[in-house]
Amino acid sequence: MTPNAASPSAPSRRSFLASSAVAAAAVAGGMPLLAACGGSDTKSREGTTSGKDAKKLLPAYVANNVVTPDIPAKNGSAVGFTARLDLAGLKTSVPAKLGKGGKVTIMSPFWGSPPKSDNAYYRAMNDLIGVDVRWQNQDGNTYEQKLGAVLASSDVPDVVVVPGWNMNGKIPNAVISKFADLGPYLSGDAVKQYPNLAAIPTDAWQRSIFGGALRGLPMPASYVPNIVPLYRKDIFDKEGYEVPRSTDEFMALAKEITNARAKRWACLDMKWIAFPAFGVLSGAEKPLGWNLVDGKLINRIETPEYLEALEWARKLFAAGVVHPDAEFGKNAPDPGPKFAKGEFLIYANDLSQWWSRTTEQAVQNPQFKVWGMDLFAHDGGDPTLWATQPANIFAFVNKKASEAVVRDVLAVANVTAAPYGTKEYMMTNYGVEGTHYTVKDGVPTKTDQGNNEVMNAYVMVAGPAATIAHPDFPEVARGQVEWQQRMGAFTRKSSFYGMQITEPSRYTNLGNDLEQMEDDVVRGRKKISDMQQWISDWKSKGGDRLRDWYKKVLDDNGSAAS
Amino acid sequence: MTAVLDRPVSDTARKPRWWQAPPRPVWEEPPSRAGLAGKSIALGFACLAILFPLWIVVVTSLSSRRTIDEAGGLVMVPKDITFVAYRELLSGGQVTRAAVISVAITLVGTLFSMTVSVLCAYGLSRTGTLGHRWILMTLMATMFFSAGLIPTYLLVQTLGLTDTYLALILPSAVSVFNILVLRGFFMGISPELIDSARIDGAGELRILWQIVMPLSRAVLAVITLFYAVGYWSAWFNASLYLNDQDMMPLQNVMIQLVQKQEAPVGMGQAIKTGELSGLAVQMAVMVMALLPVAVLSPFVQKHFRKGMLTGAVKG
Asked: A139, A142, A226: best mutation site toward chain B, by most B Cβ within 10 Å?
């Protein structure tokens, strides 16, 4: 059910990290073996907490006015920074070290080659925070297995980072039984000791409630849908193509673009664009796929719009306007080189690729210009978009940790959650000036040492409100934030938006093969009627019971969406 | 060949000329030109089918981002040769250190695995030894039922092996399949040889060392290769049991290097890749991973061929 795993054009986990956009991934299945994760916690492990109960737990929100963004957040967008970086003008958001010098071990997923445990970046960060952080960087691709094993053992590190896409099988239960309630340190006004944590949006804190207690330190994200139809603006401008505003216009344009003999096709798989075009509920996470309509919970796959969206995506394949690589589905190669070559002109992916594709080509292919197309409604009107989750990566503190350790962890989080434009943000994200990065014409560029050392470690603990800042390509940053703001105006929140919901484990594998089914239908290997049969089976195999379960969760807790 | 030579001459002389059996089977005749050409073409295609993907891998690993983008991915015709992907892989000494670790793990692990497997297989090949059947059944049961990931992790952790190199060797040290193949081979050795050695006063270890093992060179070479390739290619145990990055073996470092090219976008984690393409790094990693196997395989090939056949028949 995740855009991540959905298609070659869907966003990767890493791009999720990058953009702060939500690419939630409640992939059903995962670790069936985590049998030893039980704990002595007697609170319910299923369901959620919202409404009045949640209000008591949530930290107070105190806006951080240390830095004023160039583009303030609107309609759920990230804040945008487009100005050149002025090192001398960096603000300080943590005037005094809050750390007490203790030792904290943090286990976190890592994509790439982790630096040596004793390096200049880690030393500088630890010095800034006043805590001796020891990193256990684990391979991000096998993190779920490692997580399952570590949580089942008695030797859990002080802090464990858990991305939403790894919350499968028994892991949500283990999170509740193994990790500490941070409420006493953060709920209500207590959070004010940590000003950067107090500036984290309440939606993100709401998502950090697990098993009736505030357990997670969140990495906030914009709730505006993160999947953008990216297109080659340079070729569009040259050929005089107009950006389409309806599915019919898209099809007409796609046919105009496609010339298989000249090795040019219009697009890759557009399934994840078809869904918003027809107003289908979000597929980013299982709970987001449910919505209360006239007193009855409806799942996204039960709506006629869902089938219409699949049918339209199928028509694109049938019309031959989709690049042959898309036939491979999940196994398709990286679209980058063929997009750069111009073999196809449109593909759907995470918002962050808008910038990463730009920077990849900037040196060698200066005329290359990628831009984000507005999501369109199938009939040319305003689209109905559905919000994704406002936080999807969490850091948890071991239940056995002493108060001193918890305080030190919060000191770490208070630095890593510093907003853009502060010294703490620069240190967290770029390292030490002169060692890890240099600034030329207001653009920070990492040195080799910076590239090797300043990679995803501290940023995983907690983050500031969703931020987009690209001093190297300010027009891209503006484009991204403005896209979010325009799309945010059409974005609605479904019934379970913002809630951390743990489904009963008996439903874990329900609907596991949905994506494969979708891909087969879209590629013409199966018929729409097969999909209808699949949906009918899904209902009888547990979908209807799951609906009742969700209804009870909603009745008991109310919705967090506002 | 002997059948042909032994054929009585008078027998062929009595029959009409058209009936005469050819003096040699057809496959021993010198090939006709057409046959030779056909064979050459067929073998040429077979070689091409193997070499062409390798060629693409090598050429892509030596190409710049521009060439890769122009080709829309994999490069077939080299345009510009750049070693930037290899430089990226080998800079920082991380790969070198990891390679030393991998070689050491492979050597020590293979030696250990072979010692245990050969001793076990020899013991089990002597039918009638104490508890022979029971031990065999127990071993075979582990082929069908495994404890699963978490119990194994808990065992390794309880033994205090996490963050030690032993965690990369012990959990996968013994393969029951390999033991069965060895046992099958050992059982095929003539019992008279062993009996005569015993009459000469040799003990079991001496019989194993001086009679059985020299006669089993082929299968030992194959099983050694199986274990060595297993240790060389293993990465999951390291990612599960090791936390210290400095202890990671080569395969894990390679995976990390490939991911590095894909991973850090946005949030100030950009790597200005410039002329370096992620695809080139992936291909360079493939070349480096292939290299040791490609270098070693010609030396063990003859044993491998013989041993595979033995294992297939006797296993």
From this structure: A139
Closest CA to B310 of B136, B213, B183: B183
Q: Which residues contact A378 (CB under 8 A, 6 or more apart)?
A: A246, A247, A277, A278, A308, A312
CB B73 to CB A356 under 8 A?
A: no
Residue pLDDT, tens place only, A518-554: 999 999 999 999 999 999 999 999 999 999 999 998 8
Q: When comparing pLDDT for A481 and B221, which is higher?
A: A481
Indicate whether A41 pLDDT > 50. no
Question: Is A180 in contact with A208 (CB distance < 8 Å)?
Answer: no
Between β-strands A265-267 and A344-350, what pairing exists: parallel, antiparallel or unpaired? parallel
Residues of A in contact with B91 (CB under 8 A): 448
User: In this complex, is the C-beta atom of A72 within 8 Å of any C-beta atom belonging to chain B?
Assistant: no
Amino acid at B252: N
- The Cα B149–Cα A292 span in angstroms is 40
Report how far apart the first and last C-alpha atoms of chain A are (Å, whole number).
24
State pTM to two decimals. Answer: 0.81
Note the ipTM here: 0.71
First to last CA, chain B: 31
Six-digit token pair at B254? 């390679």
pLDDT in tens, B240-291: 999 888 888 988 888 877 776 554 333 233 334 456 777 888 888 888 888 8
- For B93-314, CATH number out of 1.10.3720.10, 3.20.20.70, 3.10.20.30, 3.90.550.10 equals 1.10.3720.10
Q: Residue with structure tokens 């030490």?
A: A432
Give yes or no for residue A48 having a pLDDT over 80: no
A334 close contact with B: CB closer than 8 A = yes
Task: Work out whether strand A209-210 and strand A213-214 pair parallel, antiparallel, or are unpaired.
Answer: antiparallel
Contact assessment for residue B61 and residue B286, using Cβ atoms and an 8 Å cutoff: yes
Domains of chain A, first to last: 51-224+389-479 (3.40.190.10), 227-386+496-557 (3.40.190.10)
Judge whether residue B30 has pLDDT over 60.
yes
- Dihedral sign computed on CA atoms, order A509, A515, A516, A518: positive
The type of residue at B23 is P
C-alpha A143/C-alpha A475 separation (Å) is 36
* Least-confidence region, from A123-132, A388-397, B231-240, B285-294: B285-294
Give me A35's structure tokens.
């049998």
Dihedrals φ, ψ of B162, to 5°?
Answer: -65, 145
Cβ–Cβ contact B289 with A under 8 A: no
pLDDT single digits (tens) B88-119: 777 767 788 888 999 999 999 999 999 999 99
For chain B, percent of residues with pLDDT exceeding 70: 83
Distance of alpha carbon A49 from alpha carbon A43, whole angstroms: 12
Sorted by where each begins, the domain ranges of chain B are 41-82, 93-314
pLDDT, residue B170, reads: 94
Q: How many Cβ pairs closer than 8 A exist between chain A and B?
A: 160
Q: Do A117 and B65 touch (CB under 8 A)?
A: no
CA distance A544 to A525: 28
A139: three-class secondary structure by DSSP: strand
A136 membership: H or E segment, kind and range = strand A132-139
State the alpha helices, DSSP H only, in B126-216.
Answer: 132-144, 149-158, 166-169, 176-188, 191-199, 204-207, 213-215
A473 touches chain B (CB under 8 A): no
**What CA–CA distance (Å, rounded) separates A345 from A256?**
12
What would the DSSP string read from start to end of A205-240?
Answer: HHTTEETTEE-EEEEE-B-S--EEEEEEHHHHHHHT
pLDDT tier, A184 (very low <50, low <70, confident <90, very high otherwise): very high
Q: Pick from A503, A495, A6: which is nearest to A274 by CA?
A: A6
The SS3 assignment for B22 reads coil
Q: Which chain A residue's Cα is nearest to B147?
A: A33
